[in-house]
User: Fold this.
Amino acid sequence: MKITKLLIGLMIFIALAFNALALVEIDSPNSAATYYVGLPITFQAHVADIENPFYIWEFEEGVYESGSEAEYIYSTPGEKTATIAVNSNDQTVAVDTITFNVVNRPGVSVFIDFPFENSVLFQNQQYTFTGRAIGFFFDDYFWKIDGNVISGTSTAYSFSELGIHTIQFTAMKNGEFMGGKQIEVNVISNSVNQAPVITSFSPINNPTITLGNSQLFTVNADDEDPLTYTWKLDNTEVGTNSNTYTYTSSSLGAFNVEVSVSDGISSVSKSWVLTVEEEEEDDGNEEPDSLYLSIEDLDIKVDSKTDTNVQDGETISREAVPGSTVTLKLKIKNTGELEINDVSIKATLESIDDGDDVEEENNEFDLKEGKSRSDSITLNIPYEVDEGTYDLKIHVEGEDEDNDLHEIDWSLNLAVEKEKHKIIIYKAELGSETLECVKTTNLNLEILNIGQEEEDAKIVVYNKVLGIDFIEDGITLSEDPFSDESGYNKIIKIKLSESFKEGIYPISIKVYRDDELEDEKELSLIVSKCAIEEVSETSSNNKIDITKVPVKIKEKTAEESNIGLIAAFSLGILLVVVLAFYLINFLVKKR
Assistant:
C-alpha cells in the first residue's frame, strides 16, 4: 500500500517537473450530484492520445483500484475527494481529482456519543467508544479505527501512536451501509504534565470589610496529581497548605491576597484585592428597638450545593446557572424583651429578569422575646438571563407589642454563570396524555438556548409504533436570552386509528447541537379503550334504560373472500367428478 502511494507521488512529481501532464478527464462521478452511503458509485475517466495508459484510482487514503472504470462504496458521509493518476511507458503522468458529497440514506441519523469531534485523548489509555443510529431497525454496526474494523455499538480502544486519528462508525441493515459518522481526535502523550485547573473560587469579586472583621477566601482546583496551596498577603506567605485562608483585618487599606495551586510541576494562581474600611459610627438617631431582630444564621443552597454561615455583604460561594433554584434558610432571633408580631422575610434578586426583580416573601409569624425561628425562601433563576453578578437583598421586619417597627436589611452578591454551549428542552407536553374515544392529540415542544453562543440545533422525536419519526435540522438559536430567536416552538400532531391497540407508548424527544446530544426527555402516551356510553331516560310512568352499544358490521377480509371462492370452486369440481363417474358407469352397463 505504501509502495503504491509512493509510486503515485513520484509519478506526480515527475509530471510536474517536466511540465508534461497529459489531459485526463473524470467522467463520473459528478461533483454537483449527491451520493448515498452504502450505494455503489461508478468512477470513470479517460485520457486522449496516450498509448497503453495505466489508471490508478484513490478513493480514500490508502484505498486504491486500477482501471479506467471502477466502483466504490463509502461507509460514512461527508465531502469526498477521489484522485485518478495515469501513466504510460513510465514517461507521461496525468492526474486529476474530483470532489463530491456523500450523505446518509434518507431518514438516517448516526451519532458518535464518545469521543467528541476534535477530542484530545491520551496515548495508550483505554477509552470506551459509543455510537448509535436512528431512522431504521439496524441489524449491525461497526467501527473503523486505524484500519481496524470492530463490530458493535461500543468498543474499548487505545491509541498507540500520537497525532490525528480518524474514527468511523457505520450502521448497517441487511448487509448494506445505511449511514455513518466520521470524526477526528488528537492523541497526545500522557506523560506531558497538565497544569491544575481552578474550578471555583470565593469571593467572586474583590471584597470589602470593616476594620476588625474577617474574610474567608476559598479556591477549588482539579488535577490528577496531589496539589499544594501557597497563600500570600502582599507577597508575604501566610496561612497553611489548604484551599482556604481567613484574613482578620487589623489595619485599614487595600491588600493583595493571592493563592498559587501547584502539582509539583505546573501551577496556576488566583488573586483578590481586599479593602478594609472603618466601620460607620452610629449617629444616635436609630431607635434601639430596630436592633431587636437579627439574622442569627443564614445558609444558601444553590441547586444541590450549600454555602453555610453566609454573612452580610458577602458573595455567595456557589454560582447559579440559568434555571437554578436558590433556597435561603434563615434563623431569625428576637433579641429584645417584647414579643415581635407579623415577622416577614422578603428576598429580592434585583434586575435579574430582563431588568425586573425576582422576589419572594414568606408567611408571617410571631416571635416571642429571646426566641429564634428558622424559615426558608426559594428563588428561581430565570432561564432567560444574562451572565453576571446580581444583588440579593434580604429584608426582615415586624412590630412589637407597642407597635414599634423592627427591621434588618442584608445585601449579598450572587453570580450567575452560563455554559459556552447549552440547549435545553424547555417544554415538552402532550395536549392529552390519555387517548380514549378520540385518538388525536398534539405534542407541544419548545427548545431554548441558554448558552453563551449562537447555535444550530436539531430536534428528533420518535416512536415507530405511533408512526412518529420527526426530524428538523438547521434550527438557528440566538445567544441573546431576551430575543425571541433564542427559542424555537413546534407543535406535532399525533393521529391514531380508531382501532389502535391499547397500551402505554413512550415518545423519545432529543435535541442535538453539531450531532452531540444536548438534552432529552421521554413522554408517555396512554391509549385506552373507548368507554361505552350509557344514557338513562325516565318517563312519567316508567323508567326506561337505553344502552347505546356500538354496533360493528364486520366486513369480509380479502382472505375470508378467497377462502369462500376456493370452497365454491372445490365443490364445483367435486360435482363434475361425480357426474362423470355416473355417466361412465351408465355407458358401460348399456353395452
In short: The domain at 109-188 is CATH 2.60.40.10 (Immunoglobulin-like). The radius of gyration is 39 Å.
